Amino acid sequence: MSDDMIRLVTIGRIFRWRWRFLAIVAVVGALVGYGASVVFPPQYTASASVLLPGQWEERQLLTQVDIATSSTVVDRTAAKLGWSGVSGSELRDLVSAKAADGNIITISGTSGTPERAQQLSDLLAKEFVSFATRLAGGSAGSTATTGLDDLRQQVVETNRRISELAKASDPGQSVESVQARTALEKLSTSLAEAMTKLNEADPATAKAGMAVMGPAARPTGEAPPTRMQLVVGGALLFLLLGVVGHLVAARMDRRLRTEPEIAAALGSALLGTVEVPEERHAHRPRDGGNRGLFRRVLGIDTRWEPRAPQRAGDEAGRRIRYGRVCARIQDRRPHPRRLLTVVPQGDEIALRAAEQLVAVAENDPSPSSSSGERPMLRVVEVSVDRPTVPDRDTESGALVVLSAGSWTAEELSGIAEACADARHEVVGIVVADRVRALPARSAGPPADDAAPALAARGRATGGSA
C-alpha cells in the first residue's frame, strides 16, 4: 500500500471516530469568523477608468499609476471629500490603481458604504486627470512647448522657401528641371510628415486629452473578505487544524504496539495472545465525573487509531487459545495458588480477556499442563496514572493482561514497579487483541459451560505503594 493511501485511510479514520469533535471545532471556527466580521465591518469597492490617448510605453503607464495614488492626489481628494476623521494618510490605504489594456488606468476606492466608495473613486479619478494635465503644462513643459513652436515655425518657413524655389526653377520640361521640382516636392512632403509625427508625440497634447470614462458604478456587494467568506474560512481553518492536530498527536504517540516491546517494558515473558470479539465502544475508556462527561460530549473518549480487528475464528478456537494460556500459567506456577490478574484501568478489551481467562480457568482443567491443576485468578484493575497493587496475601504472583497499542513504556513500567512494591512477581503477560465477531450459528443446544461466569473484580486506586 502506498503512503498516499495510508494517509487517506488515516484521515478517513479520524473523521469516522472524531466526527463530533471535528464538528464542534468547525462550529467554533465559524463563530470566530463571524466575530471577525463584526470587529471588521464590511467594505465596498468602486472603480473608475481613465483613458490615456496616444501611444504609451509600459513604464509610462506605470508612472501614471504611481501618480494616481501619490500623496498629492490623495491629499487633494481627502480635502475635497471633507470626511470627518479621514486624513490623506488614512485615505491612501483605501485607494489603488492599476494599468489595464488599451491605455486605461483603473482607479479604485474602498469605503464602508457603496455611496462613499463611489464618491471616492470618482473624485480621485478627476483629481488624477487634473494633476496630470497640470504636471504636463509645468515650467519644464512650457520650455519644451516653446521649443516645439519655434521648430514648427522653422518648418513652415522652410516649406514656403521650397515652394518659392520650385516656382522659380526652370519652368521648362527638361529632365533637370523636372528632377529638381520632384526633389523639392518630396522634401516638402517629408517635412510635413515629420511635423505630423512631432505633433502626435507631444506629451502635453497627449496628456491634455486624458478623460474619465464615465462615473464609477455603485458596488452592489461587499469587498472580499465578506462575512460569509470569513465564517466559512474560519470553519475550514479550524477543521484543518483539528485534523493536523490528530496527525501530529499520532506521530508523537509513544504507545507500544508489538508484543516484544510490551514484554520488555514489563520485564516478563509473553504467555500468549488471546482474542476478544469486537463490541461497539469496547475501546472506550470509562471515565467518570465531569471530565468523563465532557470527553463524551466532545467525542474524544473514543480512540480513533485502534488497530483494525482481524477476522475472528469460531468460539471453539478462541477457547483453545485461552486454555493454552491457562496451561502456560500453570506450568510457570505448578502449585495451585492464586494469581493476581492485573488489568490497566480503562482497558476494556483487556478486562474482558481477563474475565474470560478466569472463566476458562474455573471451568476447564488444563490437561496440557504438567500438574493438570487449574490456576486460580483474581482480577484487579490498576490505575496507570498512580498504580497501586494490593499487597501480597494468598497470591503467588501477578499476571498482567492488556491490549496492544494502548499504553506507553512508562505506564507499563509503573505497573511493573507497583507489582514489585506489593511483593508480586510478574509471572507473565497476556496480550488481548480485538477480532471481528462472526454471526452466531444456530447449531445445537449450547453447552452447559457456554456462558462463562464473570469473575468478581476489584479496583485498586490511590497513591503509589
Automatic annotation (TrEMBL):
Residues 440-459 have a biased composition (Low complexity). Keywords: Cell membrane, Membrane, Transmembrane, Transmembrane helix. Residues 440-465 are annotated as: Disordered. It is a multi-pass membrane protein. Pfam families: Wzz. It comes from the Bacteria. Its main location: membrane. Residues 6-70 form the Polysaccharide chain length determinant N-terminal domain. The chain crosses the membrane at residues 21-40, 228-249. InterPro entries: Bact_polysacc_biosynth/exp (IPR050445), LPS_length_determ_N (IPR003856). It is found in: Cell membrane. One of its GO terms (cellular component) is plasma membrane. PANTHER family: CAPSULAR EXOPOLYSACCHARIDE FAMILY (PTHR32309:SF31), TYROSINE-PROTEIN KINASE (PTHR32309). Belongs to the CpsC/CapA family. This is Polysaccharide biosynthesis protein.
